[in-house]
């Protein structure tokens, strides 16, 4: 277990895959394999914080271990992870799925909410009766499942009513539990599970076109949800309100970011489907001397405090981005798809940010990278403008907007 797996927050692995790995190990070492249930107990002894979730639609759901990942050094890594990805759309396995049809929430009908923390195993304070805690957790899980069902039905405004009904209709015998610290800890955990399930429901796992009407409804839902939550929580203990809103904020940000990415991808797909346009983009971009641009950009940004902070980081980003533009030209020459562009972005960020070992924080490295990218991009766009490049608009879009 130590050799192949590690604690990984937010990662799910099918339970059957890990057991298959174990069976292969036993066969190789000529050990007698224990049953799946016993193996699960052994795994939890080694990784106590790992939980079990049931993911998928009704009739096709499977049990997953949540909170555990496969080490990159493991022999099983490549067989499970087909390439690393920084977006939910990365990976070769999903490249051709659904590219030609529009996304519909009805495809998520029957989505099941993953497991919540089991009240039977919570370390409760003496003033919190376990039977009441179990009742509250059951009620909250049912409430969250109804939210998912409402979203799958595209009945977004029903979520407002569900929130009001649950929080303003809290039974008197359960209301005192909301003052307990254990509730302040558990509710945000449950909300995090709910929001991940909602994100998987609202945003397709592949780069499918989202109908404009659905995209508008999702935007309105994301805009109004915080307000609905605040109204529904009126009179609820401040600690509970604070915990729920803290978890809600990144969920809203995530929805908006993923939806923007999908819409950018839709526009990019239309551009890449026109072969004459792509050929012109490649021809115009090939006229630009990227190495000369990087040198000029270096003089322009030479006095920035960011460069003074870490010159090696600055130089590294410059080299990476010079290579990235060369790769982009290669992609355009082969008339690649929007999924190929997504993978190109993955490789770009991986080489410029994640693979670089420095004392700088991720935020500092990201700031340096974005400074370099915007500087190089602005000079490239300027050169395309000066030479009246026919594909100026398309290249400007690809260089200046797609990454953001």
UniProtKB/TrEMBL annotation:
RFX-type winged-helix domain location is 1-72
* Any one Gene Ontology BP term: cell differentiation
Q: Which Gene3D superfamilies match?
A: Winged helix-like DNA-binding domain superfamily/Winged helix DNA-binding domain
Pfam families from the UniProt entry = BCD_RFX, RFX_DNA_binding
Keyword annotations for this protein? Developmental protein, Differentiation, DNA-binding, Nucleus, Transcription, Transcription regulation
Q: Where in the cell is it found?
A: Nucleus
**GO cellular component terms given for this protein:** nucleus
Question: What InterPro entries does this protein's entry cite?
Answer: DNA-bd_RFX, RFX-like, RFX1-4/6/8-like_BCD, WH-like_DNA-bd_sf, WH_DNA-bd_sf
Q: Which SUPFAM superfamilies match?
A: Winged helix' DNA-binding domain
Q: Does the keyword Transcription regulation apply?
A: yes
Q: Which GO terms describe its molecular function?
A: DNA-binding transcription factor activity, RNA polymerase II-specific; RNA polymerase II cis-regulatory region sequence-specific DNA binding
Name-wise, this protein is DNA-binding protein RFX6
Q: Which organism is it from?
A: Capitella teleta
């Amino acid at each position: 277990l130590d050799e192949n797996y590690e604690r990984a927050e937010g990662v799910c692995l099918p339970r059957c895959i890990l057991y298959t790995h174990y069976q292969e190990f036993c066969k190789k070492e000529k050990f007698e394999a224990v049953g799946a249930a016993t193996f699960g107990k052994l795994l939890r002894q080694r990784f106590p914080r790992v939980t079990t979730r049931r993911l998928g639609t009704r009739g096709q759901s499977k049990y997953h271990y949540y909170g555990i990942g496969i080490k990159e050094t493991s022999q099983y890594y490549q067989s499970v992870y087909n390439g690393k990805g920084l977006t939910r759309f990365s990976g070769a396995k999903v490249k051709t799925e659904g590219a030609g049809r529009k996304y519909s929430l009805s495809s998520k009908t029957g989505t099941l909410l993953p497991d919540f923390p089991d009240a039977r195993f919570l370390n409760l304070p003496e003033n919190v009766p376990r039977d009441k805690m179990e009742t509250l957790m059951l009620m909250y899980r049912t409430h969250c499942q109804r939210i998912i069902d409402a979203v799958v039905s595209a009945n977004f405004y029903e979520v407002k009513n569900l929130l009001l009904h649950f929080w303003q209709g809290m039974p008197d015998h359960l209301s005192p539990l909301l003052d307990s610290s254990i509730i302040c800890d558990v509710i945000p955990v449950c909300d995090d599970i709910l929001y991940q399930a909602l994100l998987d429901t609202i945003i397709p796992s592949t780069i499918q076109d989202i109908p404009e009407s659905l995209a508008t409804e999702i935007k309105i839902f994301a805009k109004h949800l915080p307000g609905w939550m605040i109204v529904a929580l009126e009179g609820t203990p401040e600690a509970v309100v604070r915990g729920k809103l803290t978890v809600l904020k990144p969920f809203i940000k995530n929805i908006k970011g993923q939806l923007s990415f999908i819409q950018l991808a839709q526009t990019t797909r239309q551009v890449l489907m026109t072969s004459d346009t792509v050929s012109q983009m490649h021809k115009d971009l090939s006229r630009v001397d990227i190495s000369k641009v990087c040198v000029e950009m270096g003089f322009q940004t030479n006095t920035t405090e960011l460069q003074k902070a870490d010159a090696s980081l600055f130089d590294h980003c410059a080299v990476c981005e010079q290579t990235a533009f060369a790769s982009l030209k290669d992609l355009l020459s082969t008339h690649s798809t929007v999924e190929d562009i997504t993978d190109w972005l993955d490789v770009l960020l991986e080489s410029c940010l994640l693979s670089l070992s420095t004392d700088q924080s991720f935020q500092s490295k990201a700031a340096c990278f974005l400074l370099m990218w915007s500087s190089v991009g602005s000079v490239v766009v300027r050169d395309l403008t000066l030479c009246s490049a026919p594909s100026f608009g398309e290249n400007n879009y690809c260089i200046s907007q797609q990454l953001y």
